[in-house]
Design brief:
The protein is of the alpha+beta class and 595 residues long. Helix content is 35%, strand content 19%. The strands form five sheets. A six-stranded mixed beta sheet has the order 2-1-3-18-4-19. The chain has a four-stranded mixed beta sheet with strand order 6-15-14-13. The protein has 17 helices and 19 strands. It is globular and about 115 Å long.
């Protein structure tokens, strides 16, 4: 019995010691649990943005607006507040050019080429400029400049070497990240099903070659609903805007032309040759071509057209920077020679959708260049509109017969067109009306009021295409959307911040929700199909964790990711078993009775 008592006493003492240990453990666990729970669960305001970045876009464009809205939402996930501003183009451009240190951080805009070469995208938007024009991110890199300038000079004589240099230049550009390359757009034009012969051409966005069209039986007028003001400048030497839809291939023509598959073919030129050094180009002109005023087209007309365009230096006149001299020959009025200051692909330049138009030399009788410019632009009934039509000086299949500013333009068939009018039927009249409201244009084409339009809401295109009245041709275009980073203003002067934003960009979401699938993510600045495009360039894809890492490297502290927050909550849940253990220990203490 004594032994039992001793053992019982010893057990009781041991049990009391264990109870004290349990109490200590419980106290520690409770304290830790309360502290962690308070830290994780205690309500507190969300962290503020680590930086504010301003993004501007062209206000009337619904796609640009949607891109900006999506970017605003996504960048907030990495702590960047996006100050989104929709602006008219002139105001947006003026802000960018006035003072880079105060300009927007991201300038969103579309680009399509003047010269049908990748060089057009690279030189206009990223080449060093003495004065800001389209290099709206202020990217200045002499090594990049040399690469693309050399590549351009080799396009005609060493295309393979040219492509390799374009590759090196674009890899450098992507590494420096002076812009977000959002997407390459698909042309999504809407045309009446009954109209035949329509060809969508990526080289000339929104241009309809009316000579190729075949009207339904009994119809003589092609009716186009234009979403923007039709005419801003009718001078073929300086025009650089929306009037391309009536001028390009309809009123005026170029020496060469680029087909939808990228082939360079003759238009006013029958053939051409280039010297081995790329500095001398001879173009043999077509015979029997007349301007709308009846004047024959020859080498003198070509030379005087381009000399005036170069001399004025307006619009896209920069495309002729390579030309040193234009030579005509009295013994052969259909041969024109171009002597270049440096090698350049003149066959592509001569097909440009601006500043490459050939026009009647009779226009020079009006006066000097300024007087001619004023004469071309009227307004009605003055200037070129003072007499009877034609109201242009081109060689195209149609001439300008009427212009009501801000409302409509009428083109009429030119009976002496050099290709002739056999094999019709053809349209006699082209009526182009300015109709700003997309809903009105959509109703009009489905109701048979219009034959052609574009820039309708992407979400409506599928149902329009399924309607028996209209169809939606959709092909890749030489047009893309970019967001230029301001390299002269913090925080986007920091390459790490720029790359973080590039990694935070939801490319596929933008394509799905903005373009409704009518586009692809850009592979660098040059769209697919254009000379200079490189298929296997690196692409930024959305990676928010990578974006946060880059921001930390740049010295910023971004908010935690959703996964990190979820991990914190999961850690909190680990406390539940601890509370369960405590409960068991307490319960065992309360239930224990020594015997």
């Amino acid at each position: 019995m004594e032994i039992v008592k001793k053992m019982s006493k010893k057990y009781l003492m041991s049990r009391k010691a264990i109870t004290k240990v349990q109490a200590a453990i419980i106290a520690v666990v409770i304290i830790v649990a309360v502290v962690v729970a308070a830290y994780v669960l205690w309500p507190r305001p969300p962290p503020g943005p680590i930086m504010t970045v301003t993004m501007t876009y062209h206000a009337p464009d619904p796609a640009e607006m949607k891109v900006a809205e999506i970017m605003k939402s996504e960048l907030m996930k990495i702590g960047i507040e996006l100050d989104v501003r929709g602006m008219e183009w002139d105001a947006q451009w003026d802000l960018a050019k006035a003072d880079p240190t105060k300009a927007q951080h991201i300038f969103v805009m579309y680009w399509w080429p003047t010269i049908l070469s990748g060089y057009d995208f690279l030189v206009n938007m990223f080449h060093t400029e003495p004065e800001i024009f389209f290099n709206l991110g202020y990217y200045y890199n002499s090594e990049f400049d040399n690469l693309i300038d050399t590549a351009y000079s080799l396009e005609a004589t060493d295309p393979d070497g040219s492509i390799e240099l374009y590759r090196d230049a674009q890899e450098m550009l992507i590494e420096d990240c002076p812009a977000i390359f959002f997407y390459d757009v698909m042309n999504t034009h809407v045309i009446r099903e009954a109209v035949r012969g329509y060809v969508d051409n990526p080289a000339y966005p929104h241009v309809t070659l009316c000579y190729d069209l075949r009207p339904p039986a009994g119809e003589t007028t092609f009716r186009r609903a234009e979403p923007a003001v039709i005419v801003t400048d009718l001078d073929p030497s300086s025009q650089f805007s929306n009037e391309i839809v009536i001028i390009c291939g309809n009123m005026y023509e170029t020496l060469t032309w680029v087909t939808p598959d990228g082939e360079i073919v003759g238009q006013l030129a029958e053939s051409w040759t280039v010297s081995e050094d790329g500095l001398t180009w001879d173009f043999k002109l077509r015979k029997g071509v007349k301007f709308h005023d009846g004047t024959p087209m020859d080498s003198t007309a070509v030379a005087e057209s381009f000399e005036r365009t170069r001399r004025m230096g307006m619009g896209a006149a920069f495309i002729w920077a390579c030309v040193d001299e234009i030579i005509t020959f009295e013994e052969d009025p259909y041969l024109v020679r171009f002597k270049l200051a440096f090698p350049a692909p003149l066959d592509r330049i001569a097909a440009a959708s601006y500043a490459a138009w050939v026009f009647s030399p009779k226009v020079l009788e009006v006066g000097d260049d300024d007087a001619i410019h004023e004469w071309f632009n009227g307004p009605p009934p003055g200037g070129i509109f003072a007499g009877d039509p034609p109201y242009d000086m081109g060689t195209g299949p149609y001439y300008l017969a009427e212009h009501v500013p801000g409302h409509h333009v009428v083109l009429k068939r030119f009976e002496d067109y050099w290709r002739g009018w056999e094999g019709g039927p053809y349209y006699d009249t082209i009526y182009v009306e300015y109709v700003e409201e997309a809903a009105t244009r959509e109703e009009g084409i489905l109701g048979g009021v219009y034959d052609f339009t574009y820039l309708l809401p992407m979400e409506d295109l599928k149902s329009i295409d399924e309607n028996p009245v209209a169809k939606v041709p959709a092909i890749p275009s030489f047009q893309n959307l970019l967001g230029f980073f301001n390299l002269k203003r913090p925080p986007t002067d920091n390459a790490l911040v720029r790359k973080a934003i590039a990694y935070a960009t939801p490319y596929q979401k933008i394509i799905d929700e903005v373009l409704m699938g009518y586009g692809v993510q850009s592979k660098g600045p040059v769209p697919a199909g254009l000379f200079g495009y490189v298929e296997d360039l690196f692409q930024y894809t959305q990676d928010l964790d990578k974006a946060r890492d880059l921001l930390r490297e740049a010295g910023y502290t971004p908010p935690p990711s959703a996964m990190a927050i979820a991990g914190s909550l999961a850690y909190t849940e680990l406390l539940i078993p601890c509370f369960h253990v405590m409960a068991c220990l307490v319960k065992r203490e309360w239930e224990y009775t020594p015997t």
